[in-house]
# Entry
Amino acid sequence: MSEQSLNVRFFARLREELGTEHLTMPAPAGQTAADLLATLAKRGGPWAQLNTGQPVMIAINQAMAKPQSAVSAGDEVAFFPPVTGG
Amino acid sequence: MSEQSLNVRFFARLREELGTEHLTMPAPAGQTAADLLATLAKRGGPWAQLNTGQPVMIAINQAMAKPQSAVSAGDEVAFFPPVTGG
Amino acid sequence: MPKNSSACSKAVPSVSIQNMDFDAAQEYAQLRDSGAGTGAIATFTGLVRDSGDRQDVTGLFLEHYPGMTEQVISDLIVQAAQRWDVRKARVIHRIGRLPLQSQIVFVGVCSAHRGDAFAACEFIMDALKTSAPFWKKELTDAGEHWVEQKASDVARTEGW
Amino acid sequence: MPKNSSACSKAVPSVSIQNMDFDAAQEYAQLRDSGAGTGAIATFTGLVRDSGDRQDVTGLFLEHYPGMTEQVISDLIVQAAQRWDVRKARVIHRIGRLPLQSQIVFVGVCSAHRGDAFAACEFIMDALKTSAPFWKKELTDAGEHWVEQKASDVARTEGW
# Structure
């Protein structure tokens, strides 16, 4: 992963519906997790769900984060449905 | 135990201080647990503590009871300090 | 005369008062064997701590009121089963001399859901402490003394 | 990169995420071996129930986010140890395919006092359900489906 990119991971239902486990995305300065979701949603098809208000949980470098959290080059950003363990 | 008497039991600190594990007492009609305590307290010495407002728990036939509960001939009446199990 | 067991359509109370130690593993195995509807098992074990009311405690002596104790605890299990889903419940309380770090008490509850298992287990334990006729003596090298009931225990029970 | 453990002066978090089953008896024995100040051990075990969202469920499949899961649960133990007396805490969560009645999750907490043991154990379990990255699929003869998060679980966690 170059310094200008970040790694995106998907889990559970989202991973299955997007048919994608991980991908590398550009990391422009000032990007938030919500920006990244909006960029991904533009791919259309199942990706559109990322921008429809359906709950998507966000983790940045394996810690819970918010849509307004900054995502930077080198980060590991994960998107997943609400968790259901226990 | 005759029909005109009831059985009194003491436990723990009370049993030790009174030097008595059980005794048989008369069972006049209309007697309450508080009446019985007052009668016993008249024995003086360590028995006086039964009427000084120090907490004494009461069980009648092995179920928790109150000072105003009636005690009748044939009953098993127990007096003991607040419980400390667990 | 008091009965030693109470009927309950939801949970059969299983109460033992005994001198001997218990095997928490065996108790857990029996709780787990409570049907396919059980989703949650909560257990509590009480141990003799090294610092009681005084620092030089070497152990405890526990006295109880035979018969009444079993009845009171069975009633607590029945009450718990009326308030929460209780598939199985088990209480063991030891009596006699117990050295430091001994197991004193075990409460185990099986429920469909975790909230019920936790609540029923904690309720039974809290209520046992203020209503089951047990009395504790602390043993020290200098002698022994009866333990006083704690106001905090009474408050906890009243909270249910 | 995230660390897999957190330092805590009061309780060392011990977290395992594993396919294989666990032995609750062995876990209890290790919790009990937590020093003479321990007076209370609370444990919780979750089992796969026969009635999930649908009646024909034959088992579960559990996915997780490796690394983050361990970190989140370690952090929950640290939080618990900041709020309550926690001498030792242990969490095991299974992943992969789990048939009906399997053990899924174990939470065990040792404390000086019972209130702390119960509260810390229930807090860790409740918070785990809404913050640890696990996802459950229900398996049926007709296929499989992801389980939706329950609003009641979120409410329970917010209650802490």
Notes: The helical segments of chain C are 24-32, 68-83, 114-131, 151-158. Confidence is low (pLDDT under 50) at residues 1-9 of chain C.
